[in-house]
Each structure stands twice: as C-alpha cells, then as structure tokens.
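Try this one yourself first.
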C-alpha cells in the first residue's frame, strides 16, 4: 500500500509565498513522476507541475516563473515552492505519484489534498 501525505497549505495574501510538500511511503521501488494538481470550486482538476525521476519538469503556463517543483528521489518527496501567489491560485492542491512500482503493483496514487487560499 502506498500513501501520499501532503503538508504546507494555508492562507496567504496576494504576493506571498507558500511551500507544499508531499511524502510517499510504502513498499516503493521507484516512482516515475511526481507532481501537483489543483482543483478550484466548479473547475476540473488540472496539472500545476510535475517532475520525473531524471529531473525533467513541466509547468502549467499560469504558474511558470512563479512556482518551482523539486524532488528528492531517495526520500520519495516532492515540493512545490509557490511565489507571487495570486487569488486565482486558490484551490485544493493534490499530490500525485505516477508510475509507482511496488513488488506487486504498478500504479498511480493521489494525496488527500491541501487547501491553498490566496486573499486579495
């Protein structure tokens, strides 16, 4: 069983910063991609950023230049540094681990979500 535990969400004023963290635990052999998605009220869940084992990153256009994703492969953790936050960044942020290999399964997993609220 693989679990993803997120931390770091909260309330911040526009222009401020937050850092999200996610740790994957369980009988993990490897994780191909780790990333962050977000879902605002009334909208679909959408990719914010992801990063491969080799360090290749991918960002949504709306966060390029403001957010930075990083990863520690040895610890199975991923972080999202969010700077210059805007009210439109308000959403529930979900950690995702894709291509997770365990001794018995190859699958993807989601965290429980953490709320990020940016006030004007």
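Now uncover the answer:
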């Amino acid at each position: 069983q693989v679990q993803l535990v997120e931390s770091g969400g909260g309330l911040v004023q526009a222009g401020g910063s937050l850092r999200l963290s996610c740790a994957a635990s369980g009988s993990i052999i490897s994780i191909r991609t780790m990333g962050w998605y977000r879902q605002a009220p009334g909208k679909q869940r959408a990719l914010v950023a992801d990063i491969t084992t080799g360090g290749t990153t991918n960002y949504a256009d709306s966060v390029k230049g403001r957010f930075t994703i990083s990863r520690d492969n040895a610890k199975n953790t991923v972080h999202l540094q969010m700077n210059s936050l805007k009210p439109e960044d308000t959403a529930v942020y979900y950690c995702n681990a894709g291509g997770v290999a365990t001794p018995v399964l190859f699958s993807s997993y989601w965290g429980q979500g953490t709320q990020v609220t940016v006030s004007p």
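Discussion: The chain has a mean pLDDT of 96. DSSP finds no helices and eleven strands in the chain.
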